[in-house]
Design brief:
The structure holds two protein chains of two kinds. By secondary structure, chain A is mainly alpha-helical. Chain A contains four helices and no strands. Helix content of chain A is about 75%, strand content about 0%. The chains are: A mainly alpha, B mainly alpha.
Chain lengths: ~100, ~190
C-alpha cells in the first residue's frame, strides 16, 4: 500500500466534505448579550477615574506616615510638659529679681 | 442601501453596540464553516464562534482598513481555533483495532485496488477526521489549511501569524506525522 497515495485519497475525501455554514437561530443575539458596551470617555469621567485611582495610594502614604510618626515619637524621650515650661519661664524672672 | 463593514465598525467604535449585530449576521456563516473544520461537537463549535466574535468586538479598535474586514476576522477565527485545539488536545492513541468495520473495509478496498476506493465515501471522510484528531494542534491546523483548504504558505503565515519558514517546517512535520499515523492504521500485510 502506497501511503502517499492513501494520504492524497484521504485529503480528497476531506475536500469533498465541505463543512456546513448554517447558523443557529438568533445566534447574533447571544453574541450581543455577551458584549459589554465600549466606554465612551469624556473629560469628567477621566478626571473622576484619576481621582479614584489616586485615593488608594494617598491612603497608603497617610497610613505609612502615621505609623512612622507613632514609632518616632515612642522612641524619643518624653518632652517636658508645656505647662512646666511656662511656669519655669515665669518663675525664672522672679528668681532673677530676687537675686 | 446596505451598510458597509466600515460604516458598522465606525458606529461600534463610537459606542453603538447594535451596529456589531450587522457585522455578526453578515460574517457568522463563514466563521461557522471555518470552525466546523476544527471542532466536531456543535456545542464546542458555538462556543468557539462566540469567542471569535467577542474577541473581534474587544479588538475592533486594532482593525486597520488596509485589508477587508473579513480577512481580519478570518485571521482571528483561525487563531481562536488553534487555541481551542491546544486547550482540548487529546492523547488517545489510535490503532488499527480502533477503526470501524466500514473504515476497515474501505482501507482493504484501497489496499487491493486504490482507484476502487471511493473518496466520497462516508468511511473515508470519517477516517480523515480520526487521523486529524491524532495530530498535534499545529499539525492539524497546517494539514487543514494546506492540504484540505489548499491555501498557499504565504496565506497560512498571514492567517496564523507564523513566519513563512515556520509554516514550512510545521508543514514538513505535519506530513511526517500524518504518514506515521497512516502506517499505524494500515494492516501490516498491506505495508
Amino acid at each position: 500500500m502506497n501511503v502517499d497515495v492513501l494520504f492524497r485519497k484521504l485529503m480528497a475525501a476531506a475536500q469533498s466534505d465541505a463543512p456546513d455554514d448554517t447558523v443557529p437561530y438568533a445566534f447574533e443575539r447571544r453574541i450581543l448579550a455577551r458584549l459589554k458596551p465600549r466606554p465612551v470617555m469624556d473629560l469628567w469621567t477621566c478626571w473622576a477615574r484619576v481621582l479614584w485611582r489616586a485615593a488608594a495610594p494617598c491612603l497608603a502614604i497617610m497610613a505609612l506616615f502615621s505609623i512612622w510618626t507613632l514609632i518616632a515619637s515612642s522612641l524619643n524621650t518624653a518632652p517636658e510638659p508645656l505647662g512646666n515650661q511656662l511656669e519655669n519661664t515665669l518663675v525664672a524672672g522672679l528668681y532673677s529679681q530676687g537675686d | 442601501m446596505e451598510t458597509t463593514d466600515a460604516d458598522c465598525i465606525t458606529a461600534v467604535l463610537q459606542g453603538d453596540v447594535a451596529g456589531f449585530e450587522t457585522l455578526v449576521r453578515k460574517h457568522q456563516p463563514r466563521v461557522f464553516a471555518t470552525v466546523r473544520r476544527y471542532a466536531r461537537r456543535e456545542s464546542e463549535v458555538e462556543d468557539i464562534v462566540q469567542d471569535v466574535f467577542v474577541k473581534a468586538f474587544q479588538k475592533l479598535d486594532t482593525y486597520r482598513s488596509e485589508a477587508p474586514f473579513e480577512h481580519w476576522l478570518m485571521r482571528l477565527t483561525v487563531r481562536t481555533c488553534y487555541d481551542a485545539l491546544r486547550a482540548h488536545q487529546r492523547s488517545r492513541e489510535l490503532s488499527f483495532a480502533d477503526l470501524t468495520d466500514k473504515e476497515n473495509r474501505w482501507l482493504e478496498r484501497f489496499a487491493t485496488n486504490p482507484s476502487a476506493a471511493d473518496e466520497s465515501a462516508a468511511a473515508a471522510k470519517a477516517l480523515v477526521q480520526r487521523l486529524l484528531q491524532q495530530l498535534s494542534p499545529a499539525s492539524q491546523l497546517i494539514i487543514t489549511l494546506l492540504e484540505i483548504e489548499e491555501r498557499s504558505v504565504k496565506e497560512i503565515a498571514q492567517l496564523t501569524g507564523w513566519s513563512v519558514p515556520l509554516v514550512k517546517v510545521r508543514a514538513f512535520r505535519a506530513r511526517a506525522e500524518m504518514r506515521k499515523w497512516l502506517k499505524k492504521i494500515t494492516p501490516e500485510k498491506y505495508l
